[in-house]
Amino acid sequence: MIKKFLRRVLRLGFGTEPEVIAFKEHGIARDALSHGSSRACETLHQAGYHAYVVGGAVRDLLLGVRPKDFDVATDALPEDVHRLFRRSRLIGRRFRLAHVMFGGETVEVSTFRAGNADEREAVEAEAQSDEHGETRPEEPARTTDEHGRSRSRERARTTDEHGRSRSHEPARTTDEHGRSRSHEPARTTDEHGRVLRDNVYGTREQDAARRDFTINALYYDPSNQTILDFHRGLRDMRKKSVRMIGDPRTRYREDPVRMLRAVRFAAKFGFKIDARTRAPIRELAPLLENVPPARVFDEMSKILLSGHALAGVHRLRIEGLHHGVLPMLDVILEQPLGERFVNLALEQTDERVGAGKPVSPAFLFASLLWHEVLAAWKKAQKDGLRPIPALHQAMDRVVDIQTEKLAIPRRFTAAMKEIWLLQPRFEQRSGRRPFALLEQEKFRAGFDFLALRAASGEVPQELAGWWERFQHAKPEERAAMLVEPQPGERKPRRRRRHKPASGGPAPESAPR
């Protein structure tokens, strides 16, 4: 208790010292970094600051995956970073940070942040337990210097090589313009514990403790090519385990999106979710309803475009998280045709990502929601609506329900509806209709969707085969491929021309 009190009052670091992993052990040379992140760290070092490449970039490099982004963490304040880099801008209200531009690359540079008191206690308690869950004895609250002299009565202050106070200085807060806000709460949460604002700056150790998972709390120092591991992240990586830093229940309440991230990392890397990390997920899944739909869509897109969408979506269902992102997934997967269709769509998406081919989020979401649209379409026709008006009603209903959970951008929902509206037109293979359909902007996406439906057994394979041949046939061959109108298929009506009677008055011009 005395130790915890001293740490809270003096804002001392907590937990053990980081494990320093040398280059010969991890094998990541500074040349593996992007040009921008390497330059950012070098400039900050030359200005007297500490700077590290952090988070997912270090994790991916250790796993042999080329990172998409390289983020940097530093003890420099955002306004200091902005001052050092001419091509930079400050962004964010919840988390204040700098974007530094190097040619076409944008490097996100964030200042070390501190966690709250509860978070520090939770991480400290975790640091007292070894990998078998046994509690280690607490160290005495007395420290000594390199000569063995007692430092228990010294001021809890450390300095860097330039003499500046560093790791134990009080947390600093600023507003969006860099002005001091010490009189205002820099960390605010809602009634569910979700963090709404957090601009409390702290130490490197505190910054590592406030990160979500141990595999993301690795700090790479380009100056000496070492990795600082504060929470045994490398050990968890070797065990293929996704483990939360601190108390999982508290951390999920702070940011419910962490539950989706746990699923994404487990699916993407073939890891398992640590039992203690997994335990509260199903109970706390409803907290996703309090997250802005745009954030949920962003995280869901990462799962679907990770190259492991099939594993990710099914893992969401296992953990009970799909109700917050794809509420209709249960209904779809309970239908044999629906399950086969969704699985094929996800498998094809994973294959395209693996082959480096582009993937359309609109096509993917159209696939995930199609069988719900199909059910609503059939119901609307049974209620008396004609096919096309019924399809419009079904599309609007399903999209409205889904966008309450996921803020699917309008450009995607518009493309989804175009793909859906093309499906009944593929059944019309007579007259000029097939030729007109080939001219549609979304024809290729619509045909790929038709082929997916045929592969799942929803429509005859012959229909998809006919359109495959028709689109590649020569003009004279296409005319021979046309079929007779099907029973019930409406023939196009010709416009009748009304000739004015000879000598009669000319028709009046329409009003403008």
Walk me through what this model shows.
The chain is of the alpha+beta class and 512 residues long. The protein has helices at 2-10, 23-26, 35-46, 56-62, 78-84, 117-127, 204-209, 233-238, 248-254, 257-269, 275-278, 281-284, 293-304, 309-319, 329-333, 336-354, 361-382, 387-403, 410-422, 433-438, 443-455, 461-472, 475-481, and strands at residues 19-21, 51-54, 71-74, 88-91, 97-102, 105-111, 187-189, 195-198, 218-221, 226-229, 241-242, 272-273. It has an 8-stranded mixed beta sheet with strand order 1-10-9-2-3-6-5-4. Strand 4 and strand 5 form a beta hairpin. Helix 10 (257-269) runs parallel beside helix 13 (293-304), helix 16 packs antiparallel against helix 17 and helix 21 (443-455) packs antiparallel against helix 22. The longest helix has 22 residues, at 361-382. It is elongated and about 85 Å long. It starts with a helix and ends in a 31-residue tail after the last helix.
